[in-house]
Amino acid sequence: MKNYHLVWLALVSLCFGQFLLGQDDGGENEVQAAESVSASSFGQSEFTSILGETRTMLSEIFQEEMGENSWGRLLVSFIIIFLTYITRKIVGYLFENWLHRITEKTSWEFDDRMIPAMRGPVGWMVFVIGLFVALTVLNLSPEWDKAIVLGVKAATMTIVFWGILRGIDVFAETMMGLAKRRDMAVHGFIPLIQKATRTFLFIVAVILVVQNLGYSVSSLLAGLGIGGLAVALAAQETLGNFFGSVSLVADRPFRVGDWIQVGSKVDGDVEEIGLRSTKVRTWSKSLMSIPNKVLANEIIENWSKMPKRRVKQYIGVTYSTPADAMHDLVEDIKELLREDEGVQQDFILVNFTDFGDSSLQILVYYFTSTTAWLAHMDIRQRINIKIMKAVEARGALMAFPTRSLQFEGDIAERIADGLVSKSD
After folding, report:
1. Secondary structure letter of residue 369 according to DSSP
2. pLDDT at 388
3. What does 91-121 look like in DSSP terms, one character per residue?
4. Are 121 and 159 a contacting pair, CB within 8 Å?
5. CA 181, CA 402: separation in Å to the nearest integer?
């Protein structure tokens, strides 16, 4: 801001110098007449010599050649670049302060994100335009002029597509936040649509830039058509994964953040649903990438969709437990489940169910009131300790696997004799 007067001084000096250089013979006579009038008016003979020296100096500056460009053109080009730099700074200031303050007053998140995202593309567009104008001032060869035009076209299209891609990202982020807050089904489609749109625009941008650089796009597309069959065969898995991702998003068997289990190997939280694969963070904290084609054809168990967690276990007591003690023990377990606040009271099942190989089996079946893993495990531990105390209170014993072996005939006698001899 403080150097504006220097810029204007340079421009005025440039115009004055070009005026001096552009005078014809009649113009020179007029200048000489003006000098005579000025000298006679002021009565100073030195004025003419000073003005002549100044004119000579400016003529030397603006007429000294550097190739095809005069110092005047180089000065104009430099001034344009300097003004471009100042303009870019002003644009950045407007985006950071003035426009940002305006968007803060609105309730829409889109403009709050769009203004910072567009600062870079707009600033670079100003720079490219200023650079183009600065270069057009110079007397360059036709080859250089053509190269500059092609370069500016390519840079302009690149910046435009850059701005469009940033706008798509901002729009997708805004819609994603809105969909999550309202729990909309479209929330799963947004990342897929965003990535597909970015890929399509990138291909279009490359084709347009190549075309504007003077290359034949039709021959390029023809070459791609010849190899299209090979590409299609090679892309079968990719297309299968893409349609698998569409199927997953449409059916919504899980969302980002859900705990899923697929087969015996995949067990963890979903971190990302991509176009080709889904990333799952396992409980060992490793990141597993599963092709969407595989997930679309597998049975997926979504543990996060449980409204409550089930507990199903068997308590084995020894065969020495009396029938009355067994009956009382079953009732004690039912009662302690009813009294625990961590147990859902809508369904509780405790029954003496089986005569096992080495124990009397009591089925304990209930649901915890929480689905959080750590809280669920705390409840199970608390219930199991209460069951152990109930078994001890009834004088029963926890059973463990045992087997009774019966030997007959000579082998029984030999074993018995061996045991007797060892005892002796």
Report:
1. S
2. 95
3. HHHIIIIIHHHHHHTSS-HHHHHHHHHHHHH
4. yes
5. 58
Question: Which residues 6+ apart lie within 8 Å of 285 measured at CB?
Answer: none
Average pLDDT, integer, range 249-275: 83
Give the pLDDT band of residue 113 (cuts 50, 70, 90).
confident
Give residue-wise pLDDT tens across range 10-23.
433 434 334 333 43
Which residue carries 């904290």 as its tokens?
285
Q: Tell me, what's the pLDDT at 39?
A: 41
Q: Residue 80: how many CB atoms within 10 A of its CB?
A: 18
Tokens of 63: 């007429």
d(CA 23, CA 26): 8
Q: What is the pLDDT of residues 355-378, one digit of tens each?
A: 988 899 999 999 998 888 889 999
Q: Are 183 and 250 in contact (CB under 8 A)?
A: no
Q: Could you give the C-alpha distances from 141 to 77, 138, 144, 145, in angstroms and in order?
A: 16, 9, 5, 6
Topology classification of domain 253-305: SH3 type barrels. (2.30.30)
Count, residues in the chain:
424
The average pLDDT across 334-349 equals 93
pLDDT band, very low/low/confident/very high, at 47 (cuts 50, 70, 90): very low
- The secondary element (H helix, E strand) that includes residue 47 is helix 46-63
Structure tokens given for 229: 């069959």
Q: State the average pLDDT over residues 71-79.
A: 78
Lowest mean pLDDT: which of 45-49, 257-261, 346-350? 45-49
Q: For residue 417, name the pLDDT band (cuts at 50, 70, 90).
A: low
Q: Where in the chain is the domain with CATH 2.30.30.60?
A: 253-305
The Cα–Cα gap between 224 and 269 comes to 41
Whole-angstrom Cα distance, residue 260 to residue 270?
7
Tokens of 97: 């302060």
Q: What is the CATH number of domain 309-393?
A: 3.30.70.100
Contacts of 384 (CB under 8 A, 6+ apart): none
Which token pair is 269?
């939280």
List the structure tokens of 393: 């209170």
Q: Which amino acid is at 354?
A: D
- Parts of the chain belonging to CATH 3.30.70.100: 309-393
